[in-house]
């Protein structure tokens, strides 16, 4: 059993790692929102929801530039990433409410008129996130947070009514005198674990539910760029099919499927600017890119019950002769699931169409895979299984990626 909240926190962490400037922004906002909610006597359900909305509120900021630009107190055009966040999350049942809160988290109070925006109802919770978010953006990394309280409260009060619900600003005024609040914010990544207090849907996920949420994660990971839009869907489907052909039991196949969905979660730490760079990457950029599997590993490590899936997901750039990265593992240290994932990743990357090139033909793909197997880079047996079932595996890949592409196109249409 895996906790939905623990998993969600890792998605949040990953997306805040894209720049040190973000400094755990989403977790800070979640913490502020939770405490404001307590001051306002929100019931438990509302408290949990504003916390989770805080954790994910900027997940729709697809580029690093966009993430950083909305850290300015008077952000310009802040609604786009809020809307994208809503789009990414809304279809997953457990996040439906959260998505609605996120959609309007930059709507000003406007002396009460902000209860509606573009003909839609804006939830109170959105206004709470709005205030929490702006408090967080006023925090400077230059000084202890506790020394900044007067400045922050002054700024918030000066815009009360126009930007924020005055009732919420009042709650903030009560909260500001509690030292622990500021200390906790200062040590958000290492301090007391306030998440223990959140009971999001009380939910522990079984393997099928886990597949549902990791599939959603794949969308958040892949949809940042047209270049990667359907990659994880393909890898997941191919890896699962290869595992079936290798004779793995059903549970293992499902774990491999889930691992495929999140194998590139560490890529959330790589900026869209690098992901989509039209020219060759510089050495520094390449080393950022290369780090992604390390981050996948560290992020998934934080989630209890995900050990095996992590093992399958994070080792996809290791090579049997120890020449891969980042752990330099050798054949005997790599599980079958990890060896399958490496083949699935390479096969999918070579075969899939990208906006700037067509996927390779069978002959070319087979030649590359066979050479890599002969060089003791990837598992020869898994490669043989793939070649023996080439048509079947390819069909599965195309089918899953076609579906994902339709979803992506719908999504991309709404971005403009
Ligand atoms: Fe935002
Ligand atoms: Fe934010
Ligand atoms: Fe990768």
UniProtKB/TrEMBL annotation:
Signal peptide: none annotated. Pfam families: HD (PF01966), HD_5 (PF13487). SUPFAM superfamilies: HD-domain/PDEase-like. It comes from the Bacteria. Residues 1-188, 206-402 form the HD-GYP domain. This is HD-GYP domain-containing protein. It comes from Acetobacterium woodii (strain ATCC 29683 / DSM 1030 / JCM 2381 / KCTC 1655 / WB1).
């Amino acid at each position: 059993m895996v906790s939905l909240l623990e998993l969600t926190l890792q998605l949040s962490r990953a997306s805040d790692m894209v720049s040190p400037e973000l400094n755990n922004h989403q977790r800070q906002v979640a913490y502020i929102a939770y405490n404001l909610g307590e001051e306002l006597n929100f019931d438990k359900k509302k408290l949990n929801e504003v916390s989770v909305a805080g954790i994910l509120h900027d997940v729709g900021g697809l580029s690093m530039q966009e993430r950083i630009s909305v850290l300015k107190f008077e952000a310009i055009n802040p609604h786009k990433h809020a809307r994208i966040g809503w789009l990414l999350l809304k279809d997953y049942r457990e996040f439906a409410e959260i998505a609605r809160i996120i959609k309007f988290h930059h709507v000003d109070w406007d002396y009460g008129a902000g209860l509606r925006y573009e003909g839609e109802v804006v939830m109170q919770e959105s206004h709470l996130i709005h205030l929490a978010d702006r408090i967080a953006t006023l925090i400077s990394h230059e000084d202890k947070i506790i020394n900044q309280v007067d400045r922050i409260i002054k700024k918030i009060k000066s815009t009360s009514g126009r930007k924020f619900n005055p009732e919420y600003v009042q709650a903030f005024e009560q909260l500001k005198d509690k030292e622990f609040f500021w200390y906790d914010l200062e040590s958000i990544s290492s301090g007391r674990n306030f998440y223990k207090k959140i009971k999001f849907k009380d939910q522990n996920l079984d393997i099928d539910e886990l597949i549902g949420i990791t599939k959603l994660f794949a969308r958040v990971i892949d949809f940042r760029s047209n270049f990667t839009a359907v990659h994880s869907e393909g890898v997941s489907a191919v890896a699962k099919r290869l595992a079936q052909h290798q004779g793995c039991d059903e549970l293992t196949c499902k774990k491999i499927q889930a691992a495929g969905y999140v194998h590139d979660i560490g890529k959330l730490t790589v900026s869209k600017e690098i992901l989509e760079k039209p020219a060759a990457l510089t050495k520094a950029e390449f080393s950022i890119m290369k780090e992604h599997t390390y981050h996948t590993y560290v992020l998934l490590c934080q989630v209890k019950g995900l050990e095996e899936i992590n093992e399958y997901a994070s080792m996809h750039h290791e090579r049997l002769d120890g020449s891969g990265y980042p752990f330099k593992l050798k054949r005997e240290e790599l599980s079958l699931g990890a060896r399958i994932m490496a083949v699935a990743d390479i096969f999918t990357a070579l075969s899939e169409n990208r906006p700037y090139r067509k996927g390779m033909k069978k002959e070319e793909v087979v030649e590359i895979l066979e050479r890599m197997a002969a060089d003791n880079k990837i598992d020869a047996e898994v490669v043989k299984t793939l070649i023996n079932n080439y048509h079947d595996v390819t069909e599965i890949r195309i089918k899953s990626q076609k579906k994902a592409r339709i979803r992506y196109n719908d999504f991309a249409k709404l971005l403009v």
